[in-house]
Amino acid sequence: MSMKEQLKQRLIELKKEYEAGQKIKEYLDLKLVELENRKNSMRETLLRISGAINLLEEVLDESEEVQEKLIKVVLTSEGTVEVPNVMRQSLENAKKNLKEAGLATGEVIEQKGILPIGVMAGEIIRQEPKQGTKLPAGSAVNLVVAAKGKYHQTGDKKLVCSSYSGCKCEQNRELDLRLSK
User: Which range marks the domain in which residue 58 is found?
Assistant: First the structure.
């Protein structure tokens, strides 16, 4: 067999391998889309289950918790109350817990961006003031809620960080200013 015939034969083989590879790639792309859809569906199901668990736990413990929290509010010195930890709670639960602690819900800011592992959309990712801070009863606590979606850039900023990353960039300074109002 001549060199030209060998090259033609090799070209035919390579074209067949390429086509087979393309078919495998298309199949894998479809499987990835399917897995991503299943992952999103599972995440939403887990969020619903988590909410149901929280609701059932609250119903079961409600009478004891309410009594204890009311006693805390009454017994706190100088009319101050301690800010509870509402991080990683749903907005509804956070509002309820703040109310039970004798505090009000302040500004609620929805922050879109990449969520850290384990954080679900709709959960509190930041509170101001922080847990343990003593405030006059009835004071407001500002909340930042994790939201699905992409961070919308303003101006020519190219920031992709968030308040839970510990970053001290301009985006977080703006968020701090909005929370402190």
Answer: 1-75
